[in-house]
Write a structure and sequence with these properties.
By secondary structure, the protein is an alpha+beta fold. It has three helices and three strands; from the N terminus they run αββαβα.
Amino acid sequence: MPKMKTRRAAAKRYTVTPNGKVKYKKQGLRHILSKKSTKRKRKLRKAGILDRTEAPRVKKMLPYG
């Protein structure tokens, strides 16, 4: 049986934790930072955990994740 292909776009955006949760980098911290508050920018630094209802869809794109 051939190797399964990974969706490269999904692989660059998401990682699967050992417990099976899907982790991603939050958006909005690339540019136009002067108008955003320090508190908001600090909260955007932390990785986000994808909602459990969306996780199976992403995991399907990452077959070896």
